[in-house]
Protein 1
Amino acid sequence: MATVQGEDIKLENQGQQSLPKPPDSSTSIEDILAKKGVISSEQVAFVKAEAKRRQESTEKVIGL
């Protein structure tokens, strides 16, 4: 129950889908992209290796 300008309003989930949970903060962007099918597992391995080689973040290697 919520109050808006002095009126009580009952808040219910009326068959609506709940919002998706945000990704775990420990989940890397390349893992999220792979899970969504945007990049392959080989590309994930390349991004991680290249980030390590360059000593930069994976986001910078991807170009975000």
Protein 2
Amino acid sequence: MSKNIENKSKNKADDKRSLAEYCDRFAELNVSTNKQRGTAQYKPILLLSVIDLTAQDFISDNKIAVSENLINTFNRYWKILNSEYEGGLHYPFLHLQSEGFWHIEFKPEFNGLQPKTTNKLKHAVEYASLDNELFELIQDPVSRQTLVDTLIDVWFSYSKKQIEDVISINNEFQSSKDELDINHFDDSPQRKRFYLKKSILRNAFFARQ
């Protein structure tokens, strides 16, 4: 009996270490920087897009295709979160492999060259997959929230107006009709109430206010 309890405790500890490890990896993504334009946030935006679509069950297994949902979600995030660089899912989709937790299954006809458009990316890639352990963490609401919080804390810092823009990005993709009553502080002491549909990104932003 005590051995079973010990094993369960060990498993929980392993899970926590795994989550912490992926949070560290998310915080230390290798991204391009430019003095004039700042940080190119392709990789964190791709991860946010994948996590959001997984939370909504648009991605239901660990085979992440270059789908219209993923393309549109990435583009909408990009438009709000990083306008200084040219956008496009084809930029980070292959480069995210260098982080060690993102893996790509290429089509037989792939020529080994970086696709220069999203359409060419579609023709080059069957699907991407995450480490199985990371994909399981993303499916768990608590772990998922922690991973999203990490991405936002490290890579995004925005004004109230920009945050309000962000929460409207995925309305047309939102499958849940539930609403959340969230208390939110602005610059004044007075609380404002927001009624928002469920979204992992919205929760992450407003949990920090």
Protein 3
Amino acid sequence: NMGLKYATQAFYNNDSTFFRLPDNMEKNFILAYIASGGKGNASLLTNFVSKGNQSTRISFQMADVGSKRLDAIMAELKPRIDSILPPDKFDVELTGSSVIFSKGTDYMLKHLFESIGLAIVLISLLRLAQFKSLGIMFISLLPNIVPLIITAGIMGYFDISLKPSTILIFTIAFGLASDQTIYFLTRYQQELNLTNFTVPKVITDTITETGVSMTHIALILFFGFGIFTASTFGGTVVLGLLLSITLFVALVFNLTLLPALVLWLDKKKVRKFVSAEDTAKHLKEFDH
């Protein structure tokens, strides 16, 4: 009966006033229309009703509103569907490419944070093993994480949604930015061990020696990913543009913020050392 009511309403261009059982004359037209598929397409009915007549499919098209808006729409639709098709009589399941894509994006977003978190932990442990310094380990993460935060801010400001193509930006950029950081710190450690220069002098020499090569590598990657902006596919354009921006920002932070943090860490160590000496000196004077 419910199926016939919906069929009658659909027959009259989805006019809700015709949500009723068809009369004998309407029934002849509706059943003949369904059986013939409207224009002789006999498979029309089988596209919407299962062979055992136990389930039916109601499909519609909607605009691409993004996964966040789609979740709100689904939450709004469910109570409306339950009011029309009572849950105790009908088992309704929302599906389709939009729902599957939204769930897939949520799944990738969840594992994005897990993968970046795991990468941060592993890279931190490797840097701790290489440089034997907790301070170096912590300050070296900032030039790698800050560019990702800036990129996320750009995406939010320009309303760029998270998709499989844009999610890749963070993992790729973090790996390339970490490579630059390790290159700078390795050279800094070598200069510090091989010379008797002060830390400011060593940092200046390190920037002079590594800055040019780091810039060349960053420019190659910048234009390499930048060529993606010539694509006709929007996801590829966004991927190339944001990756290029992130790599440029990472280069700037590795040549400015990272040396500043190393200097700050060295001054902090000096202050602690001097403070310990002064304390011992005052204790001796107090004993005398």
Protein 4
Amino acid sequence: MHRWGFGVVILGVVVPIAVLGLGARHMSEDCLYLNIWAPSVKHRGFRGLQKAAVMIFIHGGSCDTGASSVAYYDGTNSVRNHDDLIVVTFK
């Protein structure tokens, strides 16, 4: 027993953001997704094989919170607004 009246195996306060659900529309027990967003050839115009920056985001969350359906993991707007960017997320 800890001097504050509870032991180390008792679950403490729940993190508030976990309770909110982060706006996830769909949850699944599948634990790994690789999402890749890249501009279409039509969108990139006639620049040929121009190099593009790759932004990689590896989500934390301790396999406790979050989902790949959460809006801020969606790279659609980033790719739409930057024709020289590829967005990769792991969740």
